[in-house]
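stage 2 :: seqdesign
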């Protein structure tokens, strides 16, 4: 029931993940090719999917607009009453004014000059600067009749006054006469710019300009892969881009694109979920690996959609191989490959050159998986990044050559993106620590750091419990050799063996390897109490692991290295001393649980064998073989390995490796001769 519940939750998370991915995807089924004049076409052959016009370039349209607008004649409405009124006001005001020299001359001559400027037409200074000054002809509407006039015949108020001044000078009128008569006060515009009528004529003229010159028919070839983008082809491509944007703007088209993307993403995620159910069901049971995988899918899919907003080719900057590295290091290589196929498939849905993209990224991911079995140092990652970058560049070069590109037409920006991709891959090293903390994984890098015997806890163990420290080192060596043969996680076994007995630090003298001088504190204790002290080194080790922040996989190894076995020395002594009494076996039984993984089983075997081998009085291959067989077979018989994925063949191989290495540890040395005096 619990497993079905987890499967349901995982399935629901897959659907939610798919919805989020599709939400961030570009939904416009438009034109997102990257191209430029004089450069080769980087994509597959482009065929017109619909009829569309070839639009004129903006420069050409601007020329045609300028040509048409040169013939535009702005409209002005003439108000004849303005001139008559101002001339009459001038005469009346002049008659009332005192001190004006020769009023009769001024009234006659200046009134005539005012009539002349009003006959030519006076516009406002603003209209003259913005309209009249930029055209050759204007239309003046007088009594519902439009008359075409040269624009230079019209006057602004300032120009009208200057005209009167010049004429007065020609007529030899005294200058003080103009000043005293204040003629400038009677010069006002009598031509009003008709902006509505002018703008209407302007729109009609521009509307008659054709926006296109020619058509492209559906099914017609536009450009082939590797062909150079000529000026003529450039016009066609820009016209297609413009028409595609028009067609993709409708909400119905967007909904269809959204539905198609969601369907594809859900199908791909369902195939991935099927793989997990068939081959990696333990990821569902543990749940953390599923969250980790879904997070990677979501992060890289959304990142791809984001970078595509600026340029489709930016997708090649996204370091997809990091996914392969993380899944390979934290989980397994097969899941890493399936994950890469899934992410690459999802990201290829929104790009045009999907075939090329899939080839490059699959090759890069496979290279990362093959070149980095485990990450234990920065140099390993650096070598892997160089290899991935080099192989990706080579496959890109080969692909371009196979599509008919020539070296002279290569676009180096692609290789720059590949180089940037390689630089970003180097961030896998610091990001690995982040994912470890978030999802509770442990990487080989962390295990290598923990296995440093100069760490705080190891130094304390070597100082306060030297016998236990030496025992742990020997167990680490034995377990490492077994793990190598059984294809287990070698670094995990090596590190876990170093820490499996740290609980003995609380009472080091109660363990025989730390006792000296023949003093044994257990001699004065009852068997039940002694057994509890011995058994508690497991729970004490768990507490100490929490205190020092050891990873959960190390704590699990500490908890299972004795499984549910008994502290047999004290158990047997107690039974022998109390033959007729019932025995509370829990007092003599380790808390467990039994080993759950192959690595934990290896640690249990190595720990028991190494400890027991110290009690052998005569070290021979036969005795070592008998000891190893007895201990390991008893563990198998007691069901210690029932819950872990270890086979009888693995057990047989482990026993052979243990015997071989114990022989090396306890090998006899030759006796050196004594020098005769």
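stage 2 :: out
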């Amino acid at each position: 029931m619990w497993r079905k519940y987890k499967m349901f939750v995982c399935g629901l998370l897959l659907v939610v993940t798919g919805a989020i991915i599709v939400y961030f995807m570009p939904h416009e089924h438009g034109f997102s090719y990257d191209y430029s004049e004089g450069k080769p076409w980087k994509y597959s052959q482009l065929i017109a999917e619909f009829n569309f016009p070839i639009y004129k370039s903006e420069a050409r349209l601007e020329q045609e607009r300028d040509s048409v607008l040169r013939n535009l004649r702005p409209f002005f409405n003439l108000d004849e009453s303005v001139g008559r009124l101002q001339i009459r006001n001038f005469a009346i005001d002049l008659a009332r004014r005192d001190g004006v020299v020769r009023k009769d001359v001024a009234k006659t001559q200046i009134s005539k000059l005012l009539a002349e400027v009003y006959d030519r037409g006076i516009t406002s200074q603003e209209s003259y600067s913005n309209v009249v000054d930029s055209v050759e002809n204007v239309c003046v509407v007088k009594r519902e009749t439009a008359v075409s006039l040269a624009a230079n015949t019209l006057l602004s108020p300032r120009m009208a006054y200057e005209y009167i001044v010049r004429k007065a000078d020609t007529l030899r009128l005294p200058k003080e006469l103009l000043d005293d008569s204040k003629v400038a006060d009677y010069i006002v515009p009598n031509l009003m710019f008709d902006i509505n009528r002018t703008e209407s004529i302007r729109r009609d003229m521009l509307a008659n300009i054709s926006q296109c010159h020619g058509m492209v028919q559906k099914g017609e070839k536009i450009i082939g892969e590797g062909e150079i983008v000529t000026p003529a082809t450039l016009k066609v491509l820009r016209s297609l881009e413009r028409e595609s944007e028009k067609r993709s703007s409708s909400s119905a088209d967007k909904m269809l694109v959204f539905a198609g993307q969601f369907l594809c993403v859900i199908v791909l995620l369902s195939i991935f979920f099927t793989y997990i159910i068939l081959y990696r069901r333990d990821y569902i049971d543990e749940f953390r690996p599923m969250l980790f995988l879904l997070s990677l899918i979501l992060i890289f899919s959304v990142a791809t959609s984001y970078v595509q907003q600026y340029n489709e080719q930016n997708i090649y900057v996204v370091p997809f191989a990091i996914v392969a590295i993380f899944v390979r290091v934290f989980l397994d290589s097969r899941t890493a490959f399936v994950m890469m196929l899934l992410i690459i498939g999802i990201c290829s849905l929104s790009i045009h050159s999907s075939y090329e993209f899939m080839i490059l990224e699959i090759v890069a991911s496979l290279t990362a998986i093959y070149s980095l079995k485990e990450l234990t140092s920065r140099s390993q990652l650096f070598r892997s990044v160089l290899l991935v970058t080099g192989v990706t560049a080579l496959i890109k070069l080969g692909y371009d050559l196979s599509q008919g590109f020539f070296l002279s037409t290569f676009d180096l920006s692609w290789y720059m993106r590949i180089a940037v991709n390689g630089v970003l891959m180097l961030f896998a090293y610091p990001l690995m620590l982040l994912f470890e903390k978030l999802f509770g994984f442990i990487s080989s890098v962390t295990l290598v750091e923990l296995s440093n015997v100069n760490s705080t806890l190891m130094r304390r163990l070597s100082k306060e419990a030297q016998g236990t420290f030496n025992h742990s080192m020997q167990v680490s060596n034995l377990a490492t050799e077994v793990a190598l043969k059984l294809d287990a996680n070698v670094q995990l076994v090596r590190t876990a063996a170093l820490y499996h007995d740290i609980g003995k630090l609380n009472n080091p003298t109660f363990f025989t390897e730390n006792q000296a001088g023949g003093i044994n504190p257990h001699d004065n204790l009852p068997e039940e109490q002694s057994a509890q002290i011995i058994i508690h080194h497991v729970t004490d080790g768990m507490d100490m692991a929490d205190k020092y922040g050891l990873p959960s996989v190390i704590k699990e190894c500490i908890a299972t290295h004795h499984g549910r076995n008994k502290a047999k020395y004290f158990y047997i002594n107690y039974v022998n001393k109390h033959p007729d009494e019932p025995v509370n076996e829990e007092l003599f039984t380790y808390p467990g649980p039994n080993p759950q993984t192959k690595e934990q089983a290896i640690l249990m075997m190595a720990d028991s064998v190494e400890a027991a081998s110290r009690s052998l009085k005569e070290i021979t291959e036969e005795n070592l073989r008998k000891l190893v067989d007895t201990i390991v077979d008893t563990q198998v018989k007691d069901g210690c390995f029932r819950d872990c994925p270890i086979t009888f063949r693995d057990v047989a191989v482990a026993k052979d490796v243990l015997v071989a290495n114990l022989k090396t540890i306890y090998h006899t040395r030759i006796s050196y001769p004594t020098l005769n005096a």
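stage 3 :: structure notes
- The longest helix spans residues 251-279.
- The mean pLDDT is 83.
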